[in-house]
Specification:
homodimer, 11 strands, alpha/beta
Chain lengths: ~220, ~220
């Protein structure tokens, strides 16, 4: 499949590399056509890896992965072009973290809204699925780096798009039983608002290589 | 120990009963001296169970457990009297849920503040420890109702008070290894902001009898 990875940070690079390793054609999108991270990533990620602007990548991809900084995601996707997103599954991995007050970051918005919902509202013809935003990039693409069973969440308004994301997660190594559907995109509020706890847990554990498992 | 349980809801009754069963003298506090829930609870919870106003209970207790509705907690504790809280460990179990917009509830405040911090700010001489607010009342007092290992969090500014809470949690059946110290009371932001995800998880699982376990 042709996949656009929007964003050149650690999540974008990790997901881009994993997707390329799995045999997909991946274009990494960024604000400029010559972003250093994107150039370096594309050079190292094999023959089917390329890079371009957000618009180049979105036009190329049959599926879009948003790994831009959460506070800049809507603007980045606007510059990608609504027409280039229409009808496509858009996996939103970003969290709207605000580091402007220092650490720990707060969220730029939450509680009665979420980034996942903002993106879906702004691009009603895209099929937005929030997922993978509750863990670090290394765990996203290789759940085996954390011991035992642990869980990943998906939410979104389009059942087919969610199923497509579930299959992609399975191709990353996520067992079907550990992929939990939380319902419509509104549930992105919950997974984004988990970030402050995630940051506290990471601090207490002294590592970001962890995840949570539900037990009942 | 003499313990005040503030609030007559499901958490207050479950914690009051557990504490009485463990041999503590428990007074349940409420707005009025003749709250029906409190009267009924005290009649059923043994000879060392009693009830009274918030002020009665706070004067009685050597340790205070806040189980009032989060949006009303600061007012309830004001009516209990700052002098009755001074120097005492105050376990804050509440979440500032707002049902005024319907379900799912949002939080009344979050992100840059938390109920735990508001209580500590309002009563600087109390030793506030946030704990147990990340699960339902039945799990709080009997972690064995959920299978396998799973975790409970504590945070607060006073190390001795946190240690006292850890020992109380152990007396409830929480293994020491599953009690996680998240640092100062500011970490209450994280555990309170987990509530929207908890609600989504509960909806997806079809039960509130669950918890999360960290794995790394």
């Amino acid at each position: 499949m042709k996949i656009a990875v929007m964003g050149t940070g650690s999540a974008g690079r990790a997901l881009g590399t994993k997707l390329a390793d799995l045999g997909h054609e991946v274009m990494m999108g960024s604000r400029t056509a010559d972003n250093e991270n994107a150039v370096e990533w594309a050079e190292g990620a094999g023959d089917d890896a390329s890079h371009g602007t957000f618009a180049d990548a979105a036009a190329f991809g049959e599926l879009i992965v948003n790994c831009t900084a959460g506070g800049a995601s809507v603007e980045a996707l606007r510059s990608a072009g609504a027409a280039n997103l229409a009808g496509k599954t858009l996996i939103d991995v970003a969290n709207p973290l605000d580091f402007s007050r220092g650490r720990p970051p707060t969220l730029l918005f939450c509680n009665t809204e979420s980034l996942g919902e903002r993106i879906q509202d702004e691009f009603p013809d895209a099929r937005v699925v929030k997922s993978l935003n509750t863990m670090n990039a290394a765990v996203m693409v290789d759940p085996g780096v954390v011991s035992g069973d642990h869980d990943v969440f998906v939410c979104g308004n389009d059942a087919e798009a969610k199923q497509q994301v579930v299959e992609l997660l399975e191709s990353f190594g996520w067992p079907a039983a550990q992929i939990m559907d939380l319902g419509p995109i509104m549930a992105a509020r919950g997974t984004e608002m988990y970030l402050p706890l995630w940051l506290n847990l990471s601090g207490a554990l002294g590592t970001s290589m962890f995840n949570i498992k539900l037990t009942q």
